[in-house]
Amino acid sequence: MIAIAPELLVAAGIAAAVSLCLAAVLSMAGPIDQPVGRSLHRTPTPRAGGLALIGGLAAGLISLWPLWPVADVYPYVWLMLALMLAGLMGFADDVLGLNALSKLVMQILLGVFLATNLVTSHLWLPMPWGDQLVSGLVMVILVSAWVVGSMNAVNFMDGANGMALMTACAIALALLMHGAGIWALWLLVCPLAILLLNASGRVFLGDVGSQPLGLLIAAMALPTINGHWAVAPVVMGLAPFIVDVGCTLVMRAWRREPLHQAHRQHLYQVLIDHGHPHLPVSACYAAFAWLGTLGALLADGASMGGIILFWYGLLTISWLVVRRRYVRRSAQA
């Protein structure tokens, strides 16, 4: 672990304390998630725990304001604003129920917002043939697509106790081992502060939490937050979620099932339906996220594009093998 400046440790402590206090309050109040057919829980549960995440991040940023030059804090304000907008969208979805198209449009707008405010004139992307420089409209489109993909991946996978928070902590921990900045530290301590209540099923993140969490993980790959080196580690760290979501969508499309309709066909849902407890399943996904992030950090940057393809291919094959095994088990039951 790298040495961390005292003011950053103080900011992290403040962020964690605020998240913990808010999570405790929100576990007893707020919107209630009522179990439905696709739910993996059986009792009504508060689902506004994501407000604790946003509150902790905001408190941490505010605590740094008097200590850092305004020019250094300025990019972080844009990211915090985007996180709050994502949380507002998620809260509206939790309370009112937004349709899929309206959420997609808002996610795209948030992606464009980050691309135009948190990325400089260009971006280096790892490709199988080497790093590729992208700029202009292509860069905005790619960053926006990445943000939308990350937000939806985390949102879709936030159905098991501790799943999203454990994975976020795993990615953040690996990034901190390589020398990432304050946002990686906040991405570790704020979810950790909420994890005990979330993992025990006493409070859910809700869309108010999963949407900004997905956006924050996506932002960890942007140069203004961590530098160009973080692109590949974050892309590989989120691979377990992206592969599960992507493969499930392809499977549903192949079966001509409506893609926008809620379901419980993700692999993690299948595993839990077959009797595996929430926490071991969530820990397994988090372990693969940590391995992917750390593997990218330790790998040779010149071949990073190929390593990313290999990692996604390996996880896809694993998804197919494990799912086929449990489908056969169901058929024999």
H-E string? HEEHHHEEHHHHHHHHHH
Structural class: mainly alpha
Strand order of the largest sheet: 1-2
Largest sheet: 2 strands, antiparallel
Indicate the mean pLDDT.
88
Sequence stretches where pLDDT stays below 50 over 5 or more residues:
none
Report the radius of gyration as a whole number of Å. Answer: 19 Å
Distance between the termini: 48 Å
Helix content: 55-70%
Note the beta-strand portion.
under 5%
Total count of strands: 4
Number of separate helices: 14
Number of domains: 1
Shape: globular
Which key phrases capture this entry?
333 residues; mainly alpha; two-stranded antiparallel ribbon; 14 helices; 4 strands
Summary?
This protein is mainly alpha-helical and 333 residues long. The chain has helices at residues 6-26, 50-64, 70-95, 100-117, 136-157, 163-178, 182-199, 207-219, 223-226, 231-237, 239-254, 267-273, 278-298, 304-332, and strands spanning 32-33, 45-46, 122-127, 130-135.
